[in-house]
Design a protein that fits this description.
There is one protein chain. This protein has nine helices and eight strands. It is mainly alpha-helical. The protein folds into two domains: 32 residues; 166 residues, Cytochrome c-like domain (Cytochrome Bc1 Complex, Chain D, domain 2, Orthogonal Bundle). Strands 1-2-3 form a three-stranded antiparallel β-sheet. A hairpin with a 4-residue loop joins strand 6 and strand 7. Helix 3 packs across helix 8. The protein is globular. The structure holds heme C. The site of heme C (HEC) has 24 residues, from helix 4, helix 5, helix 6, strand 6 and strand 7. It comes from Methylobacterium crusticola. Pfam families: Cytochrome_CBB3. This is Cytochrome c domain-containing protein. Keywords: Heme, Iron, Metal-binding, Signal.
Length: 203
Amino acid sequence: MLDLSKAVLRPLVAGLALATLALVAVHAEDAKTADPSLANQLNPNDKTAEPDPKLLAKDAAVKVEDGKYADAEGHPTFRITDAGKKVDWYTYSGYRRYHAECHVCHGPDGMGSTYAPGLKDSLKYLSYEEFVGIIAGGKQDVNASSQKVMPAFGDNKNVMCYVDDIYVYLKARAAGAWGRTRPGDKEDKPEAARKQEKECLGG
Ligand code: HEC
């Protein structure tokens, strides 16, 4: 009789082995220096930025697709050029969205307030998935001494359509790649950002 369980399992195991290999390959990539043309150029005179070499290495862009940069794990990341004066589009957009939707509780420039934590610190350890999950679902710390509520933004398109933008801006703040200043010079808005925005807001 045909042993079905084995017939089904074998390709699965092979697939798993391949997936493991792919993971190893990604880790080997980590060790290599990223494409020098994608490297961040920080502003040495910006005393409001506190560069964290470890995070800067981890968040380094290794890939770009239509103006959107990604780190070795494939998560969105920032890119600063022109000796620390120019940001990629998404970091700029994230700065604006953050200051429209989040700063009332989390303070200007992600610095925190008496009510809500400084996101420039939270983003040192929160993963991309955790970040998106908290924005969509909210978070509460309600006990006898405090009543702190992070609202769920899952239904708010002005936040959810720009969650990657806010993430990369706060990552740049957490790694100390960008200080407490408003971005001036920026990369042009990519066509992909226009398209994604239209689909997300309209749909
Ligand atoms: C009404 C006030 C308020 C607004 C607006 C708000 N938050 Fe929060 N947020 C909080 C509070 C309070 C907490 C802490 C909750 C807790 O301790 O469980 C929090 C926690 C978080 C955390 C988890 C931080 C950590 O260290 O665990 C993230 C991430 C976050 N907020 C992101 C955002 C973003 C991004 C926005 C804007 C889209 C935003 N928040 C808007 C009040 C707010």
